[in-house]
């Protein structure tokens, strides 16, 4: 097919007419394996005369095809792409990287990544030479292309160690001298453009990937390392160009020059925290650490403090840069040399930079007012914490008082107390609400230290009553939320006056009905601690129905696993008293689970809070089932609610929650009065999953299968559609015969055979010989004593099932003597302590 015809098909793939679009996609499927199809697609991607939308469709098709077919999934699988086409792609794709617009370059970058991971260095030895050649080019686009590709190559080895890392040494040796020269020339450019910043950013990323786990030996050369460090320090201290800086905060933090600053700080942090520790055992690394501490740790600290000082005077510093700098300062606290440099500036740093970062700010207020759901999500998102200046500020204060408390704890607490006093003295309307918020956050963050340290330990209750609990009634929403959070942090202290605990508990419960969503969420979070700490459950018992209602209302509004944790705690605390609410709880949790799963399916992020909350919902359901385990009739009522979840999630859709679902199946099959036919319909799903992908969950699957056989023995033995006995045999025999499976993987198999012999006496004679045959076969090849014991226990259970039948089969197979000799040998083995080495219970 010529290029023009291919372009027409790609254009049709963009059609708003579904029939035209479907026909075009069908045509692409038909021609995708024809010779040089990939090369033609690549030519369209780079053709400037072609419509941009067509080029984009071509790039996506090209990327997806390479991702799917470049490397066969199985060793013996047929190659879908000819070697000739592969060679043509490898020879041409690199040249086009700097030529295409960024949208297309991203797609080509993904293709190059796939090819590098599959082919470099064995099938693509010329790649490094191409990179090296283009790094020496005079034209900026060629240099950019080389850096772009080298970054992808460096990332392949970022997390590799030992032998897998061997190619890194050659990559560094061949390219880093050129990188250093390029870097050096770039930093000397007067009034550099943002494109220059993009080149420096790529160099930083290449360096980062190359040193992430281990410093290449070439960089241990003092002169070479000094050359790199001089440039990083230069970038660190030079001001970011003002010209071209976006005004919009979101665009500004992603601007090229701020990215350069971020990657520079990132690299220096990594060198300091991973390789600058004098406690490293490797002598070569210890020598590097000593050199780094002596020559650079202090210089970096000084430049970091200068950068941070811009915040103090209202200057701009991206959140991520602030966060990274504070991480470096936290690491500096433990080392005498850097702490001594830090100490003279600690007052300004702590009270004028770090503390203000802990206070409620304009961005917080804007988000609180305009999108309270997003405010809640960010507040409880672990990933957000990694980038948050506030979290880094809290960590810095915590580390300072933990490591250097003697010098700093009293000063900091005095500072907080002054804020509390000033707040109390000022009339309403003029109170420093945001400073009070920061002070309360500090008190909550230092909870562990203050609970252990006198004189603060003795004053905690008074401090809470005087300065925290009054804010439950504050006219300012964020202070009501902070009061709930701090109260939760201290719920476990010994209150000398139980009325203070009771009062705080009732305030937290009232917070569940607050008009502001973040207050309600923080109140539920705090409630968990109060429920755990509560000694008189009557305080909660009388309001339990209302509490559950408020929690479920909130779960309908937000997907947050902490809400589910609170619910779990309540269920765990009240046990069987939850029986009247069990059905309603399971129905609400099931509904919440489906909502969370729908959110997770619509969001590609692996750490999506919906997915985490979905897992929490299933855990809470298990907790409820366990708490009412002595009330079997409840399980009959609950089953219709949980059955759709179990059916849907016992296949590949449920891989993320498979373990939690199996736990629910285990409870339902063990505690129900009888196992219903609907529950039996789950057996084939579990067996199919085990055969297909779930071998890692075999131990979890064992539990419900045991329940089916031991509690539903009659149905197991008599049902023919499906035939459960045959199904079990097919599964066990396949696993036991698989030589690729480790002994640990198959341990549940002999346990299931034992379950059959123990529960089906006199009714599975026809299966006795097959099960004994595969048991003896596996016994002969296994080396681990644990599995040998389990297999021998199968023989013991077979003798229990029918001794004469079993002995006859062992003689028929010619293994009776061999088996009994091994059995006695295992029985006689003892440990040094004199205890039996095998058949432990």
Automatic annotation (TrEMBL):
Entry-linked InterPro entries: ARM-like, ARM-type_fold, Importin-beta_N, XPO2_central
GO MF annotation list: small GTPase binding
Predominant location category: cytoplasm
UniProt keywords, alphabetically: Acetylation, Cytoplasm, Nucleus, Protein transport, Transport
Top-level division of the source organism's lineage: Eukaryota
Subcellular location: Cytoplasm; Nucleus
A GO BP entry: protein import into nucleus
Keyword Ubl conjugation: no
Domain Importin N-terminal: 24-99
Pfam family, one: IBN_N
Keyword Iron: no
GO cellular component terms given for this protein: cytosol; nuclear envelope
Similarity comment: family membership: Belongs to the importin beta family.
Record protein name field: Importin N-terminal domain-containing protein
């Amino acid at each position: 097919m010529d290029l023009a015809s291919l372009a027409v098909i790609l254009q049709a793939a963009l059609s708003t007419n579904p029939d035209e679009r479907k026909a075009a996609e069908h045509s692409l499927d038909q021609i995708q394996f024809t010779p040089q199809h990939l090369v033609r697609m690549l030519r369209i991607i780079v053709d400037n005369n072609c419509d941009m939308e067509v080029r984009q469709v071509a790039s996506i098709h090209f990327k997806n095809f390479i991702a799917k077919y470049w490397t066969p999934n199985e060793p013996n699988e047929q190659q879908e792409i000819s070697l000739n086409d592969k060679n043509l792609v490898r020879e041409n794709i690199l040249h086009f990287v700097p030529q295409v617009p960024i949208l297309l370059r991203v797609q080509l970058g993904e293709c190059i990544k796939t090819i590098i991971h599959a082919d470099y260095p064995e099938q693509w030895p010329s790649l490094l030479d191409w990179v090296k050649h283009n790094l020496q080019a005079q034209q900026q686009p060629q240099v950019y292309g080389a850096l772009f590709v080298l970054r992808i190559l460096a990332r392949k080895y970022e997390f590799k160690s030992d032998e897998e890392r061997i190619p890194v040494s050659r990559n560094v040796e061949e390219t880093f001298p050129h990188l250093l020269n390029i870097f050096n020339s770039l930093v000397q450019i007067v009034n550099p453009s943002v494109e220059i910043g993009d080149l420096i950013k790529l160099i930083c990323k290449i360096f980062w990937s190359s040193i992430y786990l281990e410093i290449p030996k070439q960089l241990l050369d003092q002169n070479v390392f000094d050359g790199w460090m001089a440039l990083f320090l230069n970038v660190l201290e030079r001001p970011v160009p003002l010209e071209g800086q976006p005004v919009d905060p979101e665009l500004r933090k992603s601007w090229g020059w701020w990215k350069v600053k971020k990657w520079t700080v990132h690299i220096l942090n990594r060198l300091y925290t991973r390789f600058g520790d004098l406690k490293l055992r490797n002598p070569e690394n210890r020598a590097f650490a000593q050199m780094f501490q002596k020559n650079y740790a202090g210089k970096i600290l000084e430049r970091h403090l200068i950068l941070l000082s811009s915040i103090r005077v209202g200057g701009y510093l991206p959140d991520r840069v602030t966060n990274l700098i504070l991480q470096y300062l936290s690491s500096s606290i433990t080392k005498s040399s850097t702490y001594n440099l830090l100490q003279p500036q600690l007052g300004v740093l702590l009270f004028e930079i770090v503390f203000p970062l802990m206070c409620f700010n304009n961005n917080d207020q804007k988000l609180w007012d305009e999108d309270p759901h997003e405010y809640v999500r960010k507040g409880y998102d672990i990933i957000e914490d990694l980038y948050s200046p506030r979290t880094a500020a809290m960590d810095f204060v915590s580390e300072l008082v933990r490591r250097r408390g003697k010098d700093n704890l009293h000063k900091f607490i005095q500072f907080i107390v002054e804020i509390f006093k000033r707040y109390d003295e000022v009339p309403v309307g003029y109170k420093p609400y945001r400073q009070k918020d920061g002070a309360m956050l500090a008190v909550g963050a230092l909870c562990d230290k203050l609970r252990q340290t006198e004189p603060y330990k003795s004053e905690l209750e008074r401090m809470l009553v005087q300065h925290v609990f009054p804010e439950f009634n504050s006219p300012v929403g964020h202070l009501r939320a902070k009061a709930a959070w701090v109260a939760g942090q201290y719920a476990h202290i010994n209150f000398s006056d139980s009325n203070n605990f009771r009062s705080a508990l009732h305030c937290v419960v009232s917070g569940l009905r607050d008009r502001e969503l973040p207050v309600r969420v923080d109140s539920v979070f705090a409630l968990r601690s109060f429920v755990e700490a509560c000694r008189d459950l009557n305080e909660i018992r009388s309001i339990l129905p209302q509490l559950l209602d408020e929690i479920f209302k909130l779960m309908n509004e937000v997907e947050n696993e902490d809400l589910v944790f609170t619910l779990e705690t309540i269920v765990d605390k009240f046990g069987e008293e939850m029986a009247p609410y069990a059905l309603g709880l399971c129905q609400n949790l099931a509904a919440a689970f489906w909502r969370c799963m729908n959110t997770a399916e619509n969001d590609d992020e692996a750490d999506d809070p919906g997915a985490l909350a979905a897992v929490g919902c299933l855990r809470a359901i298990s907790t409820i089932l366990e708490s009412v385990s002595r009330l079997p009739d409840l399980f009959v009522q609950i089953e219709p609610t949980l059955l759709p979840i179990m059916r849907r999630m016992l296949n590949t859709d449920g891989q993320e929650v498979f373990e939690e679902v199996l736990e629910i199946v285990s409870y339902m099959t063990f505690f129900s009065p009888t196992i219903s036919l609907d529950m039996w319909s789950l057996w084939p799903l579990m067996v199919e999953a085990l055969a297909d992908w779930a071998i890692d969950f075999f131990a979890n699957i064992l539990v419900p299968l045991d329940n089916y056989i031991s509690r539903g023995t009659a149905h197991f033995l008599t049902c023919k559609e499906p035939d459960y006995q045959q199904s079990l045999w097919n599964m066990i025999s396949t696993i036991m015969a698989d030589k690729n499976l480790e002994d640990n993987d198959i341990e549940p198999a002999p346990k299931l055979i034992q379950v059959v012999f123990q529960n089906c006496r006199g009714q599975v004679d026809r299966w006795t010989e097959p099960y004994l045959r595969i048991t003896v076969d596996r016994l002969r090849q296994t080396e681990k004593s644990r599995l040998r014991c389990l297999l021998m226990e199968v023989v013991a259970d077979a003798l229990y099932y029918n001794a004469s039948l079993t002995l006859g089969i062992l003689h028929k197979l010619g293994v009776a003597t061999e088996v009994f000799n091994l059995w006695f040998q295992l029985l006689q083995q003892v440990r040094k302590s004199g205890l039996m080495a095998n058949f432990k219970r």
